[in-house]
Write the structure tokens for this entry.
Amino acid sequence: MSSPFAERLLEWYAAHARRLPWRGHPDPYAVWVAEIMLQQTRVETVIPYFERWMARFPTLETLAAASQGEVLGAWEGLGYYSRARNLQRAAQIVVTEHSGELPRQAKALRRLPGIGRYTAAAISSTAFGLDEATLDGNIRRVLARVFDIRQPARSPEGERRLWELAAVHLPPGWAADYNQAMMDLGATVCTPRAPDCPRCPLKDLCAACALGVQDQRPVSQAKPPLPHHIVTAAVIQRDGQVLIAQRPPQGLLGGLWEFPGGKVQPGEQLVACLQREIGEELGAAGVIRPLLSSEQTSGVPTAAVARMSLPLLGAIRIVGP
Ligand code: SF4
């Protein structure tokens, strides 16, 4: 027996589901790729990447056999590159340990790199129709508002209650539609700012709406301050060529190519930092001449800074052996 909450959601979804290229896709691999791309990224951004990805790596086996450079190249611009590296590592594990078949159970999926509780449940319900409730940002918001959850949604107690509510209302046999209905409602009606309550199928059931506290739910938790780093980068040229180095495979921007350099240590000057980094990374030394001073870099376009995920305050040319 489904709850009025689930019934209203499913009725609404039948008429208003978004058309997305991975929905109704017969291949669990496609659902998996979409779920990984959708982590931290908006649907509109993901759609063209998903389509290009499926054309380039149409099966789990083609992804497993590709070079890391090809995989990172196809991911370029989506950010959070560890997702792409984990996706390929997981595909290789599925090929070698599961005969190329993606596990169906959420518990088994969670043993693969890059698949956490939310993603495992989303794949298991969407691709295999298993009764798994899940919880992403949209679902969190809908549940926190309808049931007026007053604990911060990301606190252990808030998380526990939200997972419990998602599971309690899940109508057996309908997990895929139920999960996706909440995602769609959160994305199109119960939006973070200015939820469209008059148009919402859950209006009569929604405690936050009745209390007029929609904009205070979900309760957010104070975020730790963003780390701030000063970094240097060297443009090393010889015979018309420029040296770039590959970052270690793990960690921030792992496996990508960059001008050599690194983070300034406390109390360290930019030039000293660059000499140390070049020595450590390349075993080289040379005469360093500033290319941009910190005054000049104050006008560096913010897009360039944001793409690096780090503030770019010094770039230095090395001339020498
Ligand atoms: S009634 Fe408003 S706040 Fe409540 S679920 Fe619907 S859109 Fe969200």
Remarks:
- The first strand starts at residue 231 and ends at 238.
- The pocket of iron/sulfur cluster is lined by residues 142, 145-146, 189-190, 195-197, 200, 202-203, 206, 208-209, 214 (CB under 6 Å).
- Confidence is low (pLDDT under 50) at residues 299-321.
- The first helix runs from residue 4 to 16.
